[in-house]
Amino acid sequence: MKNKTCYVTTPIYYASGNVHIGNSYTTIVCDAFARYHRLKGYDTFYLTGMDEHGLKIEEAAAKRGITPQELTDEVALATKSLWKDLKVTHDYFIRTTDLNHIENVQKAFEKMLANDDIYLGSYEGDYCVSCEAYFTKTQLGENNTCPDCGKPTRRVSEPCYFLRLSKYSDKLLKFIDEHPDFIEPESRRNEVVSFIKSGLEDLCVSRTTFKWGIPVLSDPKHVVYVWIDALLNYLSALNYSESNDSNYQKYWVNGEKVVHVVGKDILRFHAVYWPIMLMALDVPINFKLYVHGWILMKNGKMSKSSGNVVYPKDVTSRYGLDSLRYYLLREMPLGNDAIFSYDRFIERYNADLANDIGNLLSRSVSMINKYFNGEVVKPVSYVNQFTLDVEKVLNESLKKTDEAFSNFRFQNGLIEIWNAIGRANKYIDETTPWILAKDEAKKSELNEVMYTLYEVLRNVAILVSPVMPDTAYKMFLALNVTSDLQTFASLGFGKTISVKVLEKVEPMFVRLDMNKELAAIEKEQEEAKAVKKLELKPEITIEDFDKIDLRVGKVLEAKRLEGSDKLLVLQVKIEDEVRQIVSGIAKNYKPEEMVGKYVVVVANLKPVKLRGVISNGMILAASGTAKDALEVIEINKEREYAKVK
Q1: Close Cβ partners of 297 (under 8 Å, ≥ 6 residues apart)
Q2: pLDDT band for position 1 (50/70/90)?
C-alpha cells in the first residue's frame, strides 16, 4: 500500500529576469495544493526552483559584463525573496547549478548513453534561443520563426547527442491509453496524443556552441541540452541515484500523489520528453500532469519586451497578498486562459472579498457581541426553518470543495466555498436577528442563528486557509477558534460547543472606489514609464549599419488600417516609385497629418504582410524617453530634392 504522501512541483523558472503574475500563478496554485494536502494530513513535499543553464543566460550575462553564475545568483535571490513575500511554503528551492543536481544529470546521461538510448550524431536545423528548443521545418512559423514564442530561430550546425524518442513512441502511447488521467485536462491529453502520432523525431540533447551548461561526463566538449538538465530536477530534489534515496523512494516510487503543474507552453517537454527519459532510465512514470493556461492582459499575452506585464508587488503593495492569491485561483479554470485586468480585479475584490466574506464576518461578530456579549453556545435543538438548509448547503460545499481542491480544480472549489458564504448572508436576511432580539422568548432561536453563522465562518476559514492564509488567520482570531477546531478533521457543522468571540473586528477588506483606483493605477503606470531606463539593443558595427538603404520619400496618401488603432497605411513616393508602407504611428498622427510630409524610409527592408496588408519598407520614427510620443523623422520641406517631385 502506498504511503499517504504528496509531491507537488512547479516548473523550474528560467533565470532571465523578474517573475510576473503569470509565472506567480503556477507557484501560488501549487502552494495552495501543498497547503491543502498538509491540512488533510499528507506528508507533503513541495518543490520549486530555477533553471539556470543555457545560451540565453550566457548571452544575457555577457551583455551585462558579469558571469552567468553571478547573473543566476542574483535572479535566484530575487525569486526566493518574492516567494517569501507571497507566503509560498516550498520545501526545497532547487537550482540547476546545485552540485548534487549536476552530478545527477551527468549520471543519468551516461546511463542512457550506455543503454544506447542516447547516441552521437550531427544536427543541422533551426534553434530558438528564447525557448531553448529545436524545431523541424514543418514546425516553424512564417519566416522561420519559433512556433511557440514567434521569435526568429537560428540555423545551427554541430555534432550532437540524440535521445531516441522514436524508440519509445508506441510505449508512451500505450501508457497514456492505459492511464487516461495522466494528463489533465483532456484537451491537452488529446493534443499530446496527436503530436506523438504525427511521428516523433529523435531529440538533440547536447550542444557544443556554448559552454554554460552541464558538461557530458564522457565527452566534456558537449554540454547537456537545457531541457534534459531541467526535467531531471524533479528527481534530483529527491536524491535520486544517491546512496541515501529515501525521499525518492517515499515521494516518487511509493508516493500516493506525484503532481507536476505546468503551463500549456511547456506541455510537450513534460508529456513527451520527460516520460520517455524516465522509461530510458527505468524510473516509474508515477506522476500526474496538470496543464494550465496563461494569465493574459486585455491586449494579449504578457510580454516584458512590450511592457505588457503586471508584477505581483504591483498588486500586493496596494491591495494585500490574499486578494491576489484569491483572484488568480478564482479566475483561472484548469486548462484555459484567464485575463488579468484591474477593473475585473476590483470588481471581484468588492463583490467576493469586501461584500461577501468580509461583511459576513464583521456582521456576525458584531451581532454576537451585541446580543450575547460575544458568547455563543451550541443549541440543544434547532427550531429555525432555515438553519437545516444552511447546514445542508455547508456540508455539500465541504464535500465538493474537497473533491475540487484534491484534484486541482481550485476555481471550482472556491465557487463552492462562496456558495456557503452566500447562503449564510441570505440566512441573516431570512432570520432577521434584529427582530428576534426584541423578543425575549426567542433568545434561544437567536442564539441558534448566531451559532449557525459562527459555524459557517469557522468552516469557511479552514477551507480558504490554503488559498488565503492571512484571511484565515484573521478569521480564526476574530472567532477565537481553538487550534483543534482549525483542522481538516474538525470540518463539518456543529463541532463548536461554546466560544467567546473578539469584541471588535477590523474590516478585512475595505470596499474600493473603482474610478479612484483605476485613476491611481494609471498614474502609477505613467510614472513608472517615465523613470524607466532606456534599454538599448545589442551594439552593431558600421558594417551592419551600412547594409541599411535610407531614402527620402514623400507621403502621397494615408489612411487607417481597418480593424487597427495603431497602424496607418501610407502611399510613399521614393524617386519614381510609389510604395505602400504600413506604419505603427496611428496613435500619434492622424492620416491627414502625414500627407505631404517628407520622411526617411528604410528602402531595402524585406516586404512583410501586416494584418493581411503588404508593407514594402519602414518609416523612421523615434521617441526621446519611454513617456514621449512617437515622432516621425521629417526632412526640411523647404529644401528641394532632385529625386523627389
Answers
A1: 308, 310, 339, 340, 341
A2: very low
User: Which H/E stretch holds residue 345?
Assistant: helix 342-348
Residue 265 DSSP one-character state: G
- Cβ–Cβ under 8 Å, residues 50 and 13: yes
pLDDT score at 140: 83
Q: Which helix (H) or strand (E) holds 275?
A: helix 274-281
| Spatial distance between the Cα atoms of 172 and 189, rounded to a whole number of angstroms | 12
Q: Which of 308-312, 504-508, 597-601, 634-638 has the lowest mean pLDDT?
A: 634-638
Which pairing describes strands 568-574 and 550-560: parallel, antiparallel, or unpaired? antiparallel
Q: Measured between alpha carbons, how far is 336 from 501 in angstroms, rounded to an integer? A: 42
- CA distances in angstroms from 38 to 34, 94, 201, 528, 553, listed in the order given: 6, 21, 41, 40, 69
3-state secondary structure of 201: coil
Query: What's the pLDDT score for residue 624?
Result: 59
Per-residue pLDDT reduced to its tens digit, 61-110 = 888 889 999 999 999 999 999 999 999 999 999 999 999 999 999 999 99
What's the confidence (pLDDT) of residue 478? 97
Q: For the ranges 24-38, 311-325, 518-532, 575-589, which has the lowest average pLDDT?
A: 518-532
* Axis crossing angle, helix 312-319 with helix 321-331, rounded to the nearest 10: 120
Is-contact 9 234, C-beta < 8 A?
yes
How far apart CA 196 and CA 136 sit, in angstroms, is 15
Q: Which of 12, 468, 17, 543 is nearest to 230 (CA)?
A: 12
Residue 356 in contact with residue 422, Cβ under 8 Å? yes
pLDDT band at 538 (very low <50, low <70, confident <90, very high): low
Whole-number CA gyration radius for the chain: 30
Closest CA to 80 of 18, 11, 35, 9: 18
The burial class, CB within 10 Å (0-12 / 13-18 / 19+), for 534 is exposed
**DSSP letter assigned to residue 426:** H
Please give the single-letter amino acid code of residue 66. I
The C-alpha cell of 383 is what? 427550531
Residue 623 has pLDDT above 80, yes or no: no
All three cell numbers of 276: 520517455
CB count, 10 Å around CB of 23? 21
List, for residues 373-386, the tens digit of each pLDDT value.
999 999 999 999 99
**Arithmetic mean of pLDDT over the chain:** 90
Q: Tell me if 144 sits within 8 A of 152, measured CB to CB.
A: yes
Beta strands, E only, 319-421: 338-339, 375-377
Confidence of residue 297 (pLDDT cuts 50, 70, 90): confident
* 226 has pLDDT over 90: no
Torsion angle of C-alpha atoms 73, 267, 118, 206, degrees rounded to 10: -40
Helix (H) or strand (E) segment spanning residue 395: helix 387-406
**Secondary structure of 448-474 as H, E, C letters:** HHHHHHHHHHHHHHHHHCCCCHHHHHH
Which residues make beta-bridge pairs with 51?
14
Q: What angle do CA 395, 398, 399 make, to 5 degrees?
A: 90
